[in-house]
Amino acid sequence: MFIPQRKHLTPQVNGDLTNKLKLKSQHLVIHRQVLNKWEGEIDNVFFCYYPKRKQLFLAPVSHAFFPKLHEANQAFLKTKNLQGDKSMPLHEILMDEELDTSDRILEFEFMEKHGILKIYI
């Protein structure tokens, strides 16, 4: 009997960016290849979490319309290593929304038209 592979069990992301975004020790770790989708050096981001959809949206602070479209907060991206990966804490969101805190790879989409990173938690 042939059983087709379930695509939703494997993170489906933009092209070669598989495994480039993960939750580690309750921090969002973003690989430099994902960060390179945005122009310039990114140290601060706007973020917004939608509990019903379990989606986290990120945009650089240079994105002028993001806080007008979403109820956004601001976060600092800390440099994680010499390769240029960065991280931001998600303790508050994970605890407030009672989400799984285990270390794992996260699915995401980079919406190039809008310059927004959509993360599925």
Describe what this molecule looks like in 3D:
The protein has 121 residues and is mostly beta strands. It has one domain (18-120). The protein is 12% helix and 36% strand. The protein has helices at residues 32-35, 66-69, 91-96, and strands spanning 21-24, 27-30, 44-50, 55-60, 73-76, 78-79, 86-89, 104-105, 107-111, 116-120. The strands form 2 sheets. Strands 6-7-2-1-8 form a 5-stranded antiparallel sheet. The chain has a 5-stranded antiparallel sheet with strand order 5-3-4-10-9, with no helix packed on it. A hairpin with a 4-residue loop joins β9 and β10 (116-120). The radius of gyration is 15 Å and the shape is globular. It starts with 20 loop residues before the first strand and ends with a strand. 21% of the residues are buried. Mean pLDDT is 85; it is low at 3-14.
Question: Low-confidence parts lasting 5 or more residues at pLDDT below 50?
Answer: 3-14
- Any idea what the radius of gyration is? 15 Å
Overall pLDDT confidence: 85
Main beta sheet strand tally, sense and closure: 5 strands, antiparallel
General shape: globular
Tally of separate helices: 3
Portion of residues within helices: 10-25%
Determine the N-to-C terminus distance.
Answer: 34 Å
Q: How many strands?
A: 10
**What is the domain total for the residues?**
1
The ordered string of helix (H) and strand (E) elements is EEHEEHEEEHEEE
**Widest sheet, order of strands:** 6-7-2-1-8
Structural class: mainly beta
Strand content: 35-45%
List descriptors.
10 strands, five-stranded antiparallel β-sheet, disordered N terminus, globular, 36% strand, 121 residues, 12% helix, 3 helices, single chain, mainly beta
